[in-house]
Specification:
By secondary structure, the chain is α/β, with parallel strands linked by helices. The chain has a single domain, classed as NAD(P)-binding Rossmann-like Domain (Rossmann fold, 3-Layer(aba) Sandwich). Helix 1 links the parallel strand 1 and strand 2. It binds NADP nicotinamide-adenine-dinucleotide phosphate. The site of NADP nicotinamide-adenine-dinucleotide phosphate has 31 residues, from helix 1 and helix 6.
C-alpha cells in the first residue's frame, strides 16, 4: 500500500484504460484523491463514478498538444489543487506502433514523440519544481527501454529516453526528498497491442497484476524496476549482450508479431 501523506492527490495520465485505470483503482483504495487524465472523458467519468470514497477530478486532455500541460495546470488551478498538493505523479499514458520505420504513419510518429517523450518531460518539469519532500514521480517505461527495437524503433527509443531521464532525476531530486521511479513492465493485457497494430500474445498478466507490482515498486523507491519475470531477465541480459546481438534478437521477435 502506498499511502498518501499531506499532499494527498495522485495524478495519473492514461487513466481511461489498461494500466492507468488499474492504478487509479488501487490508489483510490489506498486513500489517494485522484486527478485522472486521458482523452476519453466518458471513460474517465465512468471510472470516477466507481471510485466513490475519494475526490476525483477528471481532465479530458490530448497529450499530443504542445499546450497540454498548460491546460492541465489551469484545470488544477480552477479546482484549487496547487501542484504542491500532488504527492504522486504517475506518467502512464503511452502509445506504440509496430512496423517498418519508413511505413510509420506521420501522425503515429508524432503521437509517440508527444505523448511518450514531450508530455512526460514537461509534466515532470512542471511538477518536480513544486513537489514537497516525500512526493513521488513514477514513469511507466517498458522492457523496451533496455535495447533498440527494430520494427518498433521509435517506441523503443522513446522508452529508452524516459528511462534515462528517470534515472538521472532519481539522483538529482533525491536530496529534495522526491522519489523518482521508472517502471519497466514486460507485455501485459491492455488496449495497447491493438492500438499499436500487434497481436496480443496469450497468457499475458492482467493490468491489475502489473498495477500491484508498480505500486510495490514505488513503495520500495528503487530508481529502475523491471516488472515481471521476463522483464527482469531482459533488463539484466539485454544491456550485457553485444549491442548487435540484442538488436538482432529483438528484430527476430518483432518480425513474428
Ligand atoms: N501493455 C503492454 O504490454 C505494455 C508493456 C510495457 C509498457 N507499457 C506501457 O504502459 C503504459 C500504459 O499502457 P497500457 O498497456 O495500459 O495501454 P492502453 O490500455 O492503450 O492505455 C493507454 C492510455 O494512454 C492514454 N493516451 C493515449 N494517447 C493519449 C493522448 N494523446 N492523450 C492523452 N492520453 C492518451 C489512453 O487514453 P485515451 O485513449 O482515452 O486518450 C489510455 O488511457 C504505456 O506507457 C505503455 O507504453 C505497456
Amino acid at each position: 500500500m502506498v499511502t498518501p501523506r499531506a499532499p494527498s492527490w495522485a495524478l495519473i495520465t492514461g487513466a481511461s484504460s489498461g494500466l492507468g485505470r488499474a492504478l487509479a483503482r488501487r490508489c483510490a483504495r489506498d486513500g489517494w484523491n485522484l486527478v485522472l487524465v486521458a482523452r476519453r472523458q466518458e471513460a474517465l467519468q465512468e471510472l470516477a463514478r466507481q471510485l466513490e470514497a475519494v475526490q476525483v477530478l477528471t481532465v479530458p486532455l490530448d497529450l499530443r498538444r504542445n499546450d497540454a500541460i498548460d491546460h492541465l495546470q489551469e484545470r488544477l488551478a480552477a479546482a484549487q489543487i496547487p501542484l504542491s498538493r500532488v504527492g504522486m505523479l504517475i506518467n502512464n499514458a503511452g502509445v506504440g506502433d509496430h512496423g517498418p520505420f519508413t511505413d510509420l504513419p506521420a501522425d503515429r510518429l508524432e503521437a509517440m514523440l508527444q505523448v511518450n517523450v514531450a508530455a512526460v518531460t514537461r509534466l515532470v518539469y512542471r511538477f518536480a519544481r513544486e513537489m514537497t519532500p516525500g512526493s513521488t514521480i513514477c514513469t511507466v517505461a517498458s522492457v523496451a527501454a533496455f535495447t533498440p527495437g527494430p520494427l518498433m524503433a521509435v517506441y523503443y527509443a522513446t522508452k529508452a529516453y524516459v528511462l534515462s531521464l528517470g534515472e538521472a532525476l532519481h539522483r538529482e531530486l533525491h536530496p529534495r526528498g522526491i522519489r523518482v521511479v521508472t517502471v519497466c513492465p514486460g507485455p501485459f493485457r491492455s488496449e495497447f497491442h491493438a492500438a499499436a497494430g500487434i497481436r496480443e500474445a496469450r497468457g499475458l498478466p492482467s493490468e491489475d497484476r502489473v498495477a500491484r507490482r508498480v505500486l510495490a515498486a514505488i513503495r520500495r523507491g528503487r530508481p529502475v524496476v523491471p516488472v515481471g519475470f521476463g522483464a527482469r531477465v531482459w533488463a539484466w541480459v539485454g544491456p550485457r549482450l553485444p549491442r548487435s546481438w540484442a538488436v538482432r534478437i529483438i528484430h527476430a521477435l518483432q518480425r513474428r508479431r
